[in-house]
Hints:
This protein is α+β, with helices and mostly antiparallel strands and 101 residues long.
Amino acid sequence: MGRKSSMTMATIFVVLASTLTTYASTTYTVGDFSGSQVPTNNSNLYDNWADNKTFVVGDNPLFNFITREHDVAEVTEPGYNACTTTDTISTDNKGPVKITL
């Protein structure tokens, strides 16, 4: 009886393991070569940068800036939609900053 139970568990494990896909997170340097700077002549810089990216849970946007020159605020979805920092989850001004989605 014990052997049959062990074989059943082993079979279940193999089936579950074969159905799971391995996911490797991607780190994206925000703004690529322009860095995480406030655009002076291209207000669509970050929109254009994000247009060809597909972000998924586990990815890591990297904000590459000099400490205390900028900050990164992680906000709630309502805060994002309202473009406000009143619902901040965290704020960091020590560059570079990497946040896991």
